[in-house]
Protein 1
Amino acid sequence: MNTTPLIEFEEKLGASTGEFAGWTMPMSYRGYKEEHMAVRNNVALFDISHMGRIIIEGKEEELQYLLAGLVGESSLRMYGPNAFLNDKATFLDDVMVYKLAENRWLIVTNAVNREKVIDWIRRNSSLNVTDATFDYCMLALQGPNSTRLIGNDEMSRLQFKVNVKVFGENVFILSRSGWTGEDGFELILKPDAAHQVMSKMVHEKVELAGLIARDSLRQEMGFVLYGEDIDESTNPVEARYWLYSLEKEFIGREAILSILTSGVSRIRVGFKFERNEKIVPKKDGSITVRDKKIGKITSATYSPFLSRPIGMGYINSTHALFGLKVEHEHRGKKYEVKISDFPLIK
């Protein structure tokens, strides 16, 4: 089991910890609902050190062939979300690509796929791969007031800076992406510096947030989680995850073209339950129409922002009708569900 280097400090600050993707991480502090709403209304700080951080060096054309999406020429820019697909065009991982310099990149992977991605890149290219995951921590400051704390308002979304100061501490990478649907920044920095930055943000009354709130926030936006909503049995078309570019060659391109021609039998959609229902639907729970199963839930949570259960999953493409009222049975009771498009908080 891997552990964030900040775990002892986080436990002193009140973190409830748990296991996620082979890591012991903070799950919550005050409670995920309060942390969730802090992101929507103010600002909160997450430890996301479990995410894989891989340095890639070598020929750009090799990396372009491995990635389904384009990586542009501009350095100090993020290209993503992007993905590594297999030859069947199903997901090995969805990733974010940071172009550090010519022929040098940082790739952030899902924690569960880090070793698999490293092995796959090495087997399919001559690129030099360095696993920097355990050399750095990764923090995410998310919320409409994040810019006030970071002070980099001139940096546009999907840009980043290297070797900057944040709260007087050295930060290897400061990026701006906002994966919660709010404005936000990511910091990749040494563990000692991460400890100091977190301490100083706590002094500034920044809410600390855990991975439960991170999950509920991404579900409101309709963002997928690897292992829940996508995996090696899922392709980008049925997932409606448009992160590939047919303008170039990449592993899985021919399969994508075949899928686009033949169509798909299932589609990823969002689910909204009635307001003020208090259930949290279970993963793999059935979605039905007049007792006929038409799909299943892959992720679900209770949305503090919408005051209702929400989720996402796959339904038969014959029933992919936004606004259609369907049903979900939970502990012997049937609940009305509306098929909805993303983001669910629009």
Protein 2
Amino acid sequence: MKKQLIFTLTVLMVLFSGTQLLVAQTVSTDNSNTGKNWKDFKKVKVAAVQLWSPARDEPDAVKSIVKYIDRAGKEGVQLIVFPEYLLDRFTVPCEKTVAVAKAAKRNNIYVIAGGWEEFENGEYSNTALLFGRDGSIVGRHNKVHPAVGGLNPYCWPPDSLDVEWNMKKGENYDVFDLDFGTIGIMTCYDGYFAESADILSLKGAEIVCWINGRAGPIEEFIVQTDIFRNYIAMITTNLNPGSGTMIGTWPATILAHVKETGDHYISAEIDLEALRIQRKHSRVFNQREPGKYGVITESMKPQDKYIGWRDDTNVK
């Protein structure tokens, strides 16, 4: 059954339990157009863009995206990250993805951009595409946790017609070995589950890109917590009705931060060598007890304790 894909901008704070840890895979190394590997990069310059969806407001759906890719290329940026939903509806390949691919290749830069990827069987996913320096698609992340709307203040249970509730959900958290280092991707509500950043870091991600599409701010305390606990750097992006686009690194240092709404472009240099020294000698990594964490992958429902207690949704 066909579902109309509606662009949504909602701050969604949903209490959801019973999530499973998903096995992540490592995608092949991509060192196209540099001939280098991660050991050759002591630092990397990255950029993050806060932007309204050009797919809804401009005849050329990727005009703004290409403009920022070209700017980043001139400034020596190695990776530029855009917000969630920015490509709106798309297939691979299509005019939109080809335009982004050409800009990535022209600037010899990695690009993350995505939206609603539609498939021939009528299904669709909230997909973030990772374009390589040569313009090819070298990775993708399908959003695992739908950011559903609801009929009460807690956004649960979801509306049965909710666009994200009916999408094809992602099944794993992949990490991608690029020439300068290893990265992972989370999409919006994925970032509310601690397991998302945990898995990516444990699979080797040094930089986690958290793309968002909401009307409110990205929570700095979540970003700093993920950075500190997982020994990672983070790049976050948001659409321009919201805010909180930022770049940060370990231990909890925010290198650049957009605290206002509107269109913004920020860049910063991440010290990969310093981050890797911390990851290599991390006491946390060395003292993990994975055999004792099994309950995380079980279907636990702590909310069931309160069945029959109160039927109202208001705090009095």
